[in-house]
Task: structure prediction
Amino acid sequence: VQLVESGGGLVQPGGSLRLSCAASGFSFSRYDMSWYRQAPGKEREWVGKSAGAGGVKYYADSVKGRFTISRDNAQNTVDLQMNSLKPEDTAVYYCYTKIWLYEHWGQGTQVTVSS
Result:
């Protein structure tokens, strides 16, 4: 299983950024795919997920209405579109999936929201 995030960077408050996670090594469409983030000095926080069956999306209250998850089961990718970014969104963002008992994380991509 491999998860590789891309798309992080520096953006001004109010701006937008799109992260992408490329997955390989498993039957992508069957599994939930989640995004997490970890800010300096804080615990890792769940951001949202796309359910494997049916593709229903769930979001943390802190990002609801600003972030959107989309997945492409043909390309084995899951994206995180982030709009109206705030300084408190600054964190390393991780792609995550759990297959049976095993958790899999990407290496993370840094998002910095600052003027």
Q: What stands out?
A: The chain has no helices and eleven strands. The mean pLDDT is 96.
